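A favour, since you know our structure tokens better than I do. What I am after is a single protein written out in full by you. Could you add the entry underneath, on a fresh line?


***
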Amino acid sequence: MKVIFIRHGEPNYTPCDERGFIGHGRALAPLSELGIVQAEKVALNSILSKSEIIVSSPYPRALQTAAIISRETGIKLNVEMDLREWEPDKTFQFKSSEEADTLYQDFCNCKGIYPKDEKRNWEEIDEIIDRINPVIHFYYKERYEKIIVVAHGGIIRRFTGEAKVQYCTPYSINYCGSFECFKWID
């Protein structure tokens, strides 16, 4: 099965900041004006032709990107809860982008794995892989030949090995029933 991964367009966190959203509420950020243009542009990319379905993260920035692609291509859209981005705090209590950035720096410093005999609240790389692999495998078992997956950099990195996943850029892989995901990528 051919899988075309697309990272969502550029997000706008201002509405979340203005409303004082914390934790998981920060995931409600929509696309910025540039992000909308990016999604409209990628929808015209010929690599998407003959795709049978768009599968999207439930987060608005990804779902909005997928909806634009669906509108422009006429391809059916499914939402998959487990395609959400890495969780900086599994208790959903972080309060700001700055705090999320600090948690992400700790995640990076630890290369995505808790230090021996220590516990953190962020999601480890193996936890990400364990929740996203079954999603891709489901579409393989359903005999799809080509799908579009609109998700987040941390998810796409696991499948492509790309360190810098760009907004609204297609990344293609072949999935043959199983896949050895990439762990830490510098």
